[in-house]
Write a structure and sequence with these properties.
Layout lengths: L7 E6 L11 H9 L4 E7 L5 H13 L4 E6 L2 H14 L7 E5 L1 H5 L6 H19 L15 E5 L3 H11 L4 E5 L14 E4 L2 E4 H13 L4 E4 L3 E8 L2 E8 L2 E7 L1 E4 L3 E3 L15 E3 H9 L8 E8 L12 H15 L4 E6 L9 H9 L3 E4 L7 E5 L2 E8 L4 E7 L1 E6 L1 E3 L3 H8 L26 E3 L9 H21 L1
Helix pairs in contact: 1-5, 2-3, 6-7, 6-12, 8-9, 9-10
Length: about 475
């Protein structure tokens, strides 16, 4: 198409006062009208509204527009809407150019209206120049069958597999360990409402359900050797016991879980004294109902978390309270102290906090910059902590010292990243496409994410995300 045949339509949005409160939109529209190739320019208060979209279609048809520039908010949220709209008006959706004058202009130049207006003009001018070079495109339609691979056989993976399979699709669970259950296999109890449920019972019920489902096939002690292809056409090579097996997969769900960040050697006497353990190591003792002949237990929260390196681990506080209560149930006369910086407990968890206080568990708050110190006195562990509320130093004896540490992604993260071409953060947790717009999706189509592979979370949240990821993976399989 010659430049003489190109007819650009420019639509600049006020976005209420989001844009118009800073940018002189009428001035930008008038500027656009005078640029080469522009046949029509218009201002809209809410360009994404139903009425505005209908008006846009009428203008495109009336002025025989064959290139469209929309200057509004982020294309990440609204580009698909405008693509669909100009397609209905008879213009190829790939002949749309989106210019972000909210995030890139009005929001970053709130106190500089003149600068913002000039920048908006410049961006619109560039958008028009690019629009004139656009060529028609077509979307490729790929067949998607009904086979979904779930990487990880913990509660998130099993929940996702069950929900995929219940819709009549085929689910393949790939688990590197010898049995399903993930992190829950090493946990004693799970807090639920006013009571606690044995984690082993939860795992058994879910495992039995998964293994007996006709649409689910489980691969344990299995690793992924290679993944090639794209949505609807993944070729997966599995390796187990020295033998390889190939699968044809349409969609993928990543549910690889997490693991504790082990404290440094010598930190709070960890590694040099067997009486110093992490919460997961304590869980094994509690699962066996074996706390030994102890009188004093001290729990230190926020070890290697909620600092300059990483944020709050999200589950440390409720876990410390839960395990403290379990210790008191096993042996009522044990003294338990929880040392904390602040307690992050949601509404439902307040029940357990009140129960802990009623059971005689002592809570000691220490300042952010004055962590407790652990010393040995004649072979006995002593914890020195400054009580923020009392305003004085305390010395607490400890027969068992429990460290509530942060978490990181599974040690398979790097391998999975390489196979699927996805990204993770420095702690090895996978990165979703968008925290609000795509919380269970990766940037690549056909790959979903759930559970503690994304960040630490409770069992309830883990299972809910497993259901959500199954729904995301099911959409292309349902549509075919």
């Amino acid at each position: 198409m010659n430049n003489e045949d190109i007819r650009v339509g420019v639509f600049v949005c006020d976005c209420g006062s989001n844009i118009a409160g800073v940018v002189n939109v009428p001035e930008v529209v008038e500027y656009a009208r005078g640029l080469k190739g522009v046949e029509f320019a218009d201002e809209g208060r809410w360009s994404c509204s139903v009425d505005a979209l209908a008006t846009m279609q009428e203008s495109i048809k009336e002025h025989k527009i064959n290139r469209v520039v929309v200057a509004a908010c982020t294309p990440r949220t609204h580009e698909p809407l405008f693509k669909a709209n100009i397609k209905e008006a008879g213009v190829n959706p790939y002949l749309l150019e989106f210019v972000s004058i909210r995030e890139q202009v009005s929001w970053v130049h709130m106190s500089e209206p003149e600068t913002a207006t000039q920048k908006a003009k410049d961006l619109v001018k560039m958008g028009i120049a690019k629009a004139m070079l656009l060529e028609e495109g077509e979307e490729i339609r790929l067949p998607v069958k009904t086979d979904c691979m779930i990487i990880g056989g913990g509660m998130a993976g099993m929940t996702a597999a069950s929900n995929v399979a219940d819709q009549g699709f085929n689910a393949y669970i790939i688990e590197k360990e010898q049995r399903l259950g993930g992190l829950l296999n090493g946990i004693s109890t799970i807090s639920h409402d006013h009571d606690e449920i044995l984690a082993a019972d939860i795992v058994k019920a879910k495992t039995d359900s998964v293994e007996s489902h006709p649409n689910i096939k489980v691969f344990t002690s299995t690793e992924i050797e290679a993944v090639e292809g794209y949505i609807g056409n993944y070729k997966v090579t599995l390796k187990a016991n020295g033998k390889s097996e190939n699968l044809d997969i349409s969609t993928v769900i990543v549910a690889t879980g997490m693991q504790e960040i082990e404290p440094e050697q010598g930190q709070f006497q960890y590694g040099s004294d067997p009486r110093v353990v992490t919460q997961l190591q304590l869980e094994k003792k509690l699962k066996a109902q074996d706390v030994g002949d102890i009188k004093d237990v001290v729990i230190i929260n926020c070890v290697n978390s909620k600092n300059a390196t990483r944020g709050c681990c999200a589950i440390g506080c409720p876990v410390s309270v839960k395990n403290a209560l379990t210790i008191k149930k096993i042996k009522k006369d044990i003294n338990v102290h929880i040392l904390y910086r602040d307690l992050s407990m949601v509404k439902d968890e307040q029940i357990h906090l009140q129960a802990a206080k009623a059971a005689g568990i002592k809570f000691v708050r220490f300042p952010d910059d004055r962590y407790p110190e652990v010393i040995k006195n004649n072979g006995n562990l002593m914890v020195n902590v400054y009580d923020f509320l009392l305003g004085r130093e305390l010395e607490i004896p400890s027969d068992l010292l429990v460290l509530t540490v942060g978490f990181k992604g599974s040690d398979t993260v790097e391998q999975v990243k390489g196979h699927l071409k996805v990204s993770s953060n420095p702690d090895g947790f996978f990165q979703e496409a968008h925290i609000k717009l795509g919380p269970l999706d990766f940037a690549s189509d056909g790959i979903s994410l759930c559970g503690c592979a994304k960040n630490p979370k409770s069992l309830k949240e883990t299972c809910e995300e497993g259901i959500g990821a199954a729904m995301r993976a099911s959409i292309p399989m349902k549509n075919g």
